[in-house]
Amino acid sequence: LGQFEDAPEKAVFCQNSLDFEAADALETSGDYAGALAAFEALGSFSNAAERARYCSDTLDYNAAIDLIGAGDYAAAAEKLAAPAESGYEDAADQLEYCNNKVAYQGAEQALADGKNYTAYVAFLDLGSFEDSAARAELCVLAEPASGELYHNENYTARQVDFKVVNSYNVATYVKLYLNNGDLVCSFYIQANKSATVHVPAGTYTINRAFGTQWFGLEDMFGDDGMYYRQLIGDSYEFTMENNYIYTLSSGTGGTPVVDNTTEREGF
Length: 267
Hints:
By secondary structure, this protein is of the alpha+beta class. The protein has helices at residues 7-28, 32-41, 48-69, 73-86, 91-112, 116-125, 132-139; strands at residues 147-151, 160-165, 171-178, 183-189, 194-199, 202-211, 226-232, 238-240, 244-248, 257-261. The protein contains 7 helices and 10 strands.
């Protein structure tokens, strides 16, 4: 009929209808990839766009289930994003599960890397997911005995005795730096205890932290701890001379010490 009246439009409609039926048959047979291509080719005809999205979601969902079975939760989560947005079956629940598994694996890796506080927070954030609550508790380390935890092998001279008295009801962790920036030693003191370290004579700065849960030398008391630079008199630097004993304690007498808040990072 060529261009007679609306014959061209009718012809397109009939061809689209035939193609739609063919796409529907492909979907019914389980050939979602073929159906997807066929529905996408139909553009805005009928509900072809919705049917194409359904086929795409089905392909992504099925691929995600296989990835979950293989333990690749990150890749599965990527596949589940679109189906979850569409409300496809239980895709939203599966996506939440995968995201939790990815976070759980990240917490495990942080713990393996010695980042106990990072792992602790990650496990806590997972709430009741699997055994996250119990794993969070395991990230907290046993309290060390009062005394030195680290000593720089380049500064082994024992010219000065430096004693710190912790009169507080929480533990404290002390880092002693030379004024050239080198960390000479660090030591832990339990609540209401004291510790003495032996260091070379020199000019020092001191950082001091307080907390109740110990996560190791890197994370210390975590973000719940309190971290300070100690201002000794009117300077952060103080000099300890050879063959002297120095004591840092609360109470009257001696040079005033002020706690100036600092960040855990760089402590």
